[in-house]
Amino acid sequence: MDSRTARLGLHAIDELEARRIHDRAPQPGDAWAADYPFEGDLPATGSFLRATEQNGEQRPFGYYQIRRQSDRLAIGGVGFEGPPDGGVVEIGYGLVPSARGHGYATEALGTVVQIAAGLGVTTIRADTDLDNVASQRTLEHAGFHQVEADSKLCHYEVKVQTS
């Protein structure tokens, strides 16, 4: 379930890895950036752990740790918020502050779109806070289009060409 790009590796974590990330308790062999995990990784891995407890194995529709190829350090995560429902999935993502601004999130999102396409997903949705312009631009660079906005969030989606 792992995927690679020129600059990144996306690693589909298991329950033990999720627990270490959630507890901020790296073990020997875990290579994490100094600011990993960041605040966004904690609720994401918490949701992954709850879903695993309730429904069993989450992969391939779980959480992927984003690792930089150049130094193999974990710099963030991207994940599905559950299996497809009628061909539709929702995702979330984030990077540690030290890794932002290099196009890594766009690259990771593109990889998740490819993973989803290979699994028969037809639509991927994501949302951002109204004031999170950087995240909105990231989604747009990854091919997502804003479909709605409400008083708190901008909602995006991308239609997927399944393989």
From TrEMBL:
<protein>
    <submittedName>
        <fullName>GNAT family N-acetyltransferase</fullName>
    </submittedName>
</protein>
<feature type="domain" description="N-acetyltransferase">
    <location>
        <begin position="1"/>
        <end position="162"/>
    </location>
</feature>
<dbReference type="Pfam" id="PF13302">
    <property type="entry name" value="Acetyltransf_3"/>
</dbReference>
<dbReference type="InterPro" id="IPR051908">
    <property type="entry name" value="Ribosomal_N-acetyltransferase"/>
</dbReference>
<dbReference type="InterPro" id="IPR000182">
    <property type="entry name" value="GNAT_dom"/>
</dbReference>
<dbReference type="InterPro" id="IPR016181">
    <property type="entry name" value="Acyl_CoA_acyltransferase"/>
</dbReference>
